[in-house]
Amino acid sequence: SNSLTGTPWTNLLRVLFLGVSTLASFSLAQLELHVPTGLTTLEVVEGGEVVLPAWYTMTGEVPSSNPWEVPVLIWFLEQEGKELNQVLAYINGAVSSKPGVSLVHSMPTRNVSLRLEAVHEKDAGTYRCSVNVQDSLGTSATSMGHSSKSIELKVLIPPALPSCSLQGIPRVGSNVTLNCKSPRNKPTAQYQWEKMGSSPQIFFAPTLDAIHGTLKLTNLSKSMSGVYVCKAHNKVGVAQCNMTLEVITESNAAVVAGAIVGTVVGLVLLAGLVLLYQRRSKALEELANDIKEDAIAPRTLPWTKGSDTISKNGTLSSVTSARALRSSQAPPPRPGAFTPTPSLSSQALSSPRMPRTDAPHPQPVSLNPGGVSSSALTRMGAVPVMVPAQTQVGSLV
User: Fold this and answer.
1) How many CB atoms lie within 10 A of CB 153?
2) Cα 206 from chain centroid?
3) Residue 275 in domain
4) N or C: which end of the chain has fewer CB within 10 A?
5) What is the pLDDT of residue 136?
6) Which domain holds residue 280?
7) For position 284, what pLDDT does the model report?
8) 262 CB-side CA count, 13 A
């Protein structure tokens, strides 16, 4: 019996007791998932970053950064009219997630907060965190509980740059409406109109419609001319546009209308002149083509049958030397007689020297070649050349 009460047996019994007590406490532990008290909705500006806080505990256990259990974690996104979308999962020690989605703390840990970066409007919705814990001390995993919590995320959008416009003609005594509209904003933007000047003028209802961004100005006067600024604003931003209102009198209106009408008429006339010019050019071109196709070449002038200077095929020999020989003997042309002007070769042959005469100037040379024979011209080195056609008035063609 003394041997049973020895120190080794006492230590063994103590270890067995502590182990059973620990297992009993583990089996009694219950999983509970938490979010900050009263937090059901989070808001973030588009393009920003947000953290959805969540953590879990085991009932009767002190929260630990290094838990003994093996958690299975899944974050879902629920959106109206769409299927459930898994954005992050931690299963079997591995994390998988959508772009821009991550856990704030590395697993394993009981803090399962979710981080979203570069948030867009499409990321808005209800995020649900689901945790399932298994006991890792035994030979087989045993589920020790499941819990889930939800947080709604709203994505806010500052007003986009609005556009300003004028409805109506700003004449003295008339009514106009100034319009202002921002194409994108969330929550819905409110609008405010203001007239700039040394003492800015702010408008209120019923002149101003802050929901639709309209400003109605009635019974206009010249003093109402100026720069008007519209501001679109919501809880996360503001944007503005401006326009200049110039109230005109009746005379100015007539001048403006006349200028507009004159401009339109001028443009119409200019277009007509351009069209007329194009048609005229086309007609002249067609007429010229017709004339070229229908024209008949003029007949060659009759020459003296005995002429050795003019060849049968219509060529003219070089008559430079002949002209020099007959210059003092050629009779003057008869009044009204037709004297053609032949084309001479570019290189005239040198003629024999002739005795000088007392005549003051040589008389015009008659092209009647009767005085020079063909053989003489050949010996003198005359070269046949082409005779251009002539019109009835004697000009070369």
Assistant:
1) 19
2) 41
3) yes
4) N
5) 59
6) 257-288
7) 81
8) 6
Helix (H) or strand (E) holding 55: strand 55-58
**Based on C-alpha coordinates, what's the Rg of the chain?**
56
User: In this structure, what token pair is assigned to residue 274?
Assistant: 């351009």
**Dihedral sign for Cα atoms in the order 168, 170, 172, 175:** positive
SS (H, E, C) 357-396: CCCCCCCCCCCCHHHCCHHHHHHCCCCEEECCCECCCCCE
Supply the mean pLDDT for the chain: 75
- Write the pLDDT tens digit of every residue in 6-53: 445 444 444 443 343 334 344 456 888 999 988 999 999 999 999 999
Tally of domains within the chain: 4
**Helix residue ranges, H only, 100-208:** none
Q: Is residue 177 part of a domain?
A: yes
Domain identity same for 220 and 277: no
**CA-wise closest residue to 87 among 58, 111, 115, 55:** 115
Give the span between the Cα atoms of 58 and 344, in whole angstroms.
127
Please answer whether residues 218 and 181 qualify as being in contact, where contact means their C-beta atoms are separated by less than 8 angstroms: no
pLDDT band at residue 311, thresholds of 50, 70 and 90? very low
